[in-house]
């Protein structure tokens, strides 16, 4: 974290004339710029965090790949995501990877896609998936036994896919089967492996080959399901059991912008939803249980809350899950799955008197902002009760942004929050999960050096039946 002297140097983001401002500086604490590349390859998250500890706008050097910039103040996040969003486009690599899906398209195309999809992701609409979610959770945890040692990250990867395939594609995955689809979903993240992230797109690294094969497998499955659902899909969200059927129904009834619902677009949309929805949810669940296991007092209150429910959690009882909700909120603050948001500048921009030139990559440090002592007391502490009072309304509107912000805020956030609450409650009623892994000297869990936050593979939890 920055010293008090540094804090004074942080203006919090006043726009100045871009022409004569000096370039954002390299951080003084990260060694010579020619070594940045090595740090970045090894530990992208730790490196960006270290750099942003010195000031709210920094430049990192990536050898032959030029520079990449980091910004770490909520004012800056707000400018990038909301007030000056025209000056920051999505990065080219996402577009190449995910084609015409909602996550990647821009401008009018994005607006038209979002208009079609948004009504299907409102809080009310996603509530229809609640029973299906609980069913998927129960099906999987029925197999857990007292004394099992579980790699929760792997278990929740499977669970998140069970739920996504059932609710988005209308396809129930076999508990122990459908390995090709499951592995394909996991390999969608291989596009962003640090080892190939900085290489030109045409270089066929092994990770990129895996990514392309995975994308084709999921597109082929979407094709098969599209053919199966053709003719007579529902048009009423309440009557639809999955998102794809509903989109097909809307297309056939001609009630939505049909140009946004061609087979090609629907295929891209399905790949996008699987990519955007599964790793993020997995991480949220895994770190929530890690946090509970490491904070006995909170765990006790959580168990008391879910035990007070009348059987498995239902929609009507969601409002009673206060502790559970705050556990998720606080987990997403400390361990936001999307720890940094990437953009590219469309023009020269100035942050705190320092210029970032046009066509440069910028990372908005979400995890950094959410652990900033200027906005949170004891920011490194897992303390769900901090959300009990007025913190939310008093907080800078971009100091908590695990789902991003502005018009491109995560469309799946209500879905994800519902799934997280229901999953935590269903599991918490039946099991206690103890942490068998090792935290570091600061009490932090072992995380993988990936572009999204993940727990290191192979970390185990002990299952105790309650
Ligand atoms: C806890 C779980 C989740 C987290 C933390 C999360 C986080 C995010 C973030 C930070 C963004 C903004 C990206 C940007 O501005 O560059 C985003 C966008 C998006 N997310 Fe999520 N997400 C989660 C779950 C989901 C789920 C379950 C789905 C789908 C079922 C989903 C679908 C999407 C889509 C399609 C976008 C692009 C929206 C647009 O650009 O209009 N996400 N998500």
UniProtKB/TrEMBL annotation:
Keywords assigned: Heme, Iron, Metal-binding, Monooxygenase, Oxidoreductase
Single GO molecular function: iron ion binding
Record bears the keyword 4Fe-4S: no
Top-level taxon in the UniProt lineage: Archaea
InterPro entries in the record: Cyt_P450, Cyt_P450_CS, Cyt_P450_E_grp-I, Cyt_P450_sf, Cytochrome_P450_Monoox
Spans annotated as Disordered: 1-27
Similarity comment: Belongs to the cytochrome P450 family.
Name assigned to this protein: Cytochrome P450
The species this protein was found in: Halorientalis pallida
Lineage of origin: Archaea, Methanobacteriati, Methanobacteriota, Stenosarchaea group, Halobacteria
